[in-house]
Amino acid sequence: MKKYSILSGFFVVAAFLFSGCNDEFLERYPLDRITNQTFWNTENDLRVYNNSLYDLARNDDNVPILHGHYNGFDSHWASIWFQDEFADNMAPRHARHNLFQQVRSGKHTIPTDPQQFGYKGWNFVRAINVGLANYDKAAVAQAIKDRYIAEARLFRGWFYAEKVSKFGDAPFVDKELNVDSPELNAARTPREEVMNKVLEDLNFASTKLPDSWGDGNAPGRLNRWCALLVKSRVCLFEGTWRKYHGGTDPTKWLQEAANASKELMDKGPYRLYSTGNPQTDYNAYHRVLNLAGNPEVMYWRKYQLGVFTNHVQSYFEYAGGATKSLVEDYLCTDGLPITLSPLYKGDDKIEDVFENRDPRLRQTVLHPEDAAKYKYHLADGRPYPRIQGMEGGYVSTTGYHIIKHYNADDMIGKAFDTAESPAIILRFAEALLNYAEAQAELGKITQADLDLSINKLRDRVGMAHLEMGKVPVDPRYTADGISPLIAEIRRERRIELFMEGFRYNDLKRWKQGKKLLIPTLGIRWDAAAIARYPKANIKTAVDPVSKKTYIDVYQGTDWANPVFDETKHYLWPIPLNTLAQNPAIKQNPGW
User: Fold this and answer.
1) What is the pLDDT of residues 163-215, one digit of tens each?
2) How many Cβ atoms sit within 10 Å of the Cβ of residue 279?
3) CA nearest 319: which of 111, 104, 107?
4) I need a labelling partner for 435 at 20 to 30 A (CA). Which of 33, 187, 277, 382 fits?
5) Residue 26's pLDDT band (boundaries 50, 70, 90)?
6) Which H or E element spans position 26?
7) What is the rounded CA–CA span in Å between residue 365 and residue 370?
8) Selection from 177, 221, 172, 194 nearest residue 14 by Cα
9) Per-residue pLDDT for 553 more than 50?
10) How far apart are alpha carbons 463 and 272 in whole angstroms?
């Protein structure tokens, strides 16, 4: 019996199933253990094997696709909730979140080994390819085999799409390798070739997976509708990347995104969660422990005491707070931006910020009057907001405490690292946003399209509709080189999907890295604020637009004076050890 182990740190053997027998004289299979030759017989064998893929995907650092909160203490940095720290939605200052601050400010450097969420996870690809080489051995109907093949191919396509989004070219491998495989010393596959393979995988998955596995969203397995949502996400990224960065046939990818979203919208069993209460419906289901049966949540990760837990609720302080930039993107209730609406009350005090605004703002950022309602900081009874330097309670770098996912009951009375807040991985609202954006980028969007997508999201919170003939022209976005309609669709995406891991990738695919150069500001700072927030230890800056003074989060830190090099910062660097092991991989441009 010959066991394969792969050199250069590229792939590792994932399980005992990855052994092969090549004795020329006699093959004798051991009777006391499972081997590759005696497995792969029944549907249960295929199911059990694919369960191991889900298990590998729980490592959110190594395989950041089914991104949840990771496990235990590591949920403080690996959670999907904190991915927005790479961009302009959140303002971390904690040392444990340095990577987010480095990337946000353009101060990251080439790592020696793969960084967090970086150039790794190749054992996952190997495990997938081992399965794909063996599923057909099972003595079951082809339609049954195809379900598990489709599940594996969904994982592979999704994984490679994520790698392409970070690194561009990627080493696409679709077979099990051994120590002599030339692919181990090959150059990376060009991104467009990789993405063609990705689309093949996603097309197979979105046609061959079952509509339901009969698991009741407990949660269970990824179904065909999930594959369609992943396909729409990946194709929207690729289509807009090629449109704004350059590339072959962006229209094909945008159309694929629109088609996948529309199929899910028209034929899928999902709908937006709504009880008819616009003041609570947006964040209500983001703050519960059990999402089974929720009509909007397509896939989620469950955490359970004694099985798999986190403590992500305790780390909101690490995230710093929401930024002034984010808060200012919420429309007023008349559907106009704050730059145009007569309803805007200004920001001289924090309570004014919430007046006449999209209800999602108050369900995302803590209003001072809501601290008791949310039992904020374990119902400590202190007045909020609390600013960095103030004594006791949770403090914020910006003054805009985040409340969207907050659930005090997941901490009160519980031991450290034993919390159970779930992670929403796929939800139906994204399909509506993907569809609207793809149609707009194709130049095909109609009022009917808006009513099927953006306006459904607005209906949930009682907001004015977006109308084709009345699209506001926000002066803050006229220099972005896009139509006012696309600007509004992008704004809606930022608001609806805040703190769900999308903003950084969105800025990259839109070629809007320049937005990371905008100073990271917080609440208004004047004599009244100084009196209201005693002992606050902050620095301030004057907003060049309003000429008013605000908290300046990064002034005096290593992350002040951000840079964004258009020739390099849209991709991450390849680690030095990877290049040393295989020079053919080559470094990304500019690094």
Assistant:
1) 999 999 999 999 888 888 888 889 999 999 999 999 999 999 999 999 999 98
2) 12
3) 104
4) 277
5) very low
6) none
7) 10
8) 177
9) yes
10) 15
3-state class (DSSP) for residue 310? strand
Residues 186 and 256 sit within 8 Å (Cβ to Cβ): no
With cut-offs at 50, 70 and 90, classify the pLDDT of residue 37.
low
β-sheet bridge partners, residue 524: 550
In this prediction the pTM is 0.94
Bridge partner residues of 427 (DSSP): 297
Residues 6+ apart with CB under 8 A from 454: 432, 433, 436, 466, 488, 489, 492
Q: Is the pLDDT score of 309 beyond 60?
A: yes
pLDDT at 34: 62
Amino acid at 177: L
Q: Which two tokens stand for residue 572?
A: 């991450």
For the CA atoms of 136, 137, 142, 144, the dihedral, rounded to the nearest 10 degrees, stands at -100
CA–CA dist 261, 270 (Å, integer) = 12
Cβ-based neighbours of 452, under 8 Å, separated by 6 or more: 265, 432, 435
Q: Per residue in 93-131, pLDDT tens? A: 999 999 999 999 999 999 999 999 999 999 999 999 999
Q: Tell me which residue of 429, 465, 494 sits closest to 274, measured CA to CA.
A: 429
Cβ distance 557 to 535 under 8 Å?
no
Instruction: Reply yes or no on whether the pLDDT at 46 is more than 80.
Output: yes
Per DSSP (E only), the strands in 161-221 are: none
User: What residues contact residue 116 under an 8 Å CB cut-off, 6+ apart?
Assistant: 61, 77, 78, 99
Q: Which residues are registered as beta bridge partners of 68?
A: none
CB 308 within 8 A of CB 58: yes
Sheet of 549-552, strands arranged across: 521-524, 549-552, 540-542
User: Exposed/middle/buried for 585, CB within 10 Å: 0-12, 13-18, 19+?
Assistant: buried
DSSP state letter for 99? H
